[in-house]
Amino acid sequence: MRQMSPRPHSAIRPLMKFMAVSAAVTAALGICAGVALAAPAQPAVPAARAHAAVPVGAAVPADSLITATYPATGSTYLNALGSTVTLGPGTLSSTVDLSTSAVTATLTLPPATVSFKESGLIPVSAITEFIQDGTATGTANLSDNTVTATFRVTLKITSLNVAGLPVPVGSQCQTTAPATITVNSQPGFNLLSGGTLAGTYTIPQFSHCGLETFLIDLTVPGPGNTITFALGRATSS
């Protein structure tokens, strides 16, 4: 591990806090998500301060960790179903470590409703949950304001209706493994007021869905799914 940077001179402390909050904004899911920013360029943080590492066993100073919470709304396009699902409103809590440029994030979302027509005729609806598995990790480049973050998200079906009739799926109907979702900030992102994060992902097979497991696996899993989040103005702490 590399040597931790000394405490920043008081003249640049406000700038570093601003840059850290900016990086945290762009870190987004989570979904589990994931940025070329169109905001005005900020003065670069000196490389020795932005990238110096912390020795093994050393404590990270409190003023090297900046945490912020952001309102998050979004949508995901499920390629196999040809259906767009509204996500949120939820929250994204993100922390940036000034000494290493590492980013961690947690995305919290309410259940979402998926609706589509099987074979173009039979209406199907399901209540789903996007459950983050562990903390999302990523990196922030403080000199050019770009961030990439990777989330691991389990998709869970809690209820299923076909042609208006409830179909039992049990209490553990979910993907056999978390989906890996990497998101990046998009052009036009504003460092303070937020913007768009986007990525793509593959949905794994499902299990523990009772008699419906086979049909769900024929219908839902596969690649080519997209996810987009809009982050609002951050509140730092």
Question: How widely separated are the two ends?
Answer: 28 Å
What is the average of the pLDDT values? 78
Order of helices and strands: HHEEEEEEEEEEEEHEE
Q: Which stretches of 5+ consecutive residues score pLDDT under 50?
A: 1-58
What's the total number of strands? 14
Query: What's the CATH first level?
Result: Mainly Beta
Task: Tell me the fraction of residues in β-strands, as a range.
Answer: over 45%
What's the helical proportion of residues? 10-25%
**What Rg do the Cα atoms give?**
20 Å
The strands making up the biggest β-sheet line up spatially as: 1-2-3-6-7-10-11-13
Could you say which structural class the secondary elements and strand pairing correspond to? Answer: mainly beta
Total number of domains: 1
Number of helices: 3
The CATH topology label is Porin
Shape, principal axes of CA atoms:
elongated
Largest sheet: 8 strands, antiparallel, barrel
CATH architecture descriptor text: Beta Barrel
Could you explain the architecture of this structure?
- There is one protein chain.
- By secondary structure, the protein is mostly beta strands.
- The protein has a single domain, classed as Porin, CATH 2.40.160.
- The chain is 11% helix and 47% strand.
- An 8-stranded antiparallel β-barrel has the order 1-2-3-6-7-10-11-13.
- A hairpin with a 3-residue loop joins strand 4 and strand 5 (122-132).
- The protein starts with 12 loop residues before the first helix and ends with a strand.
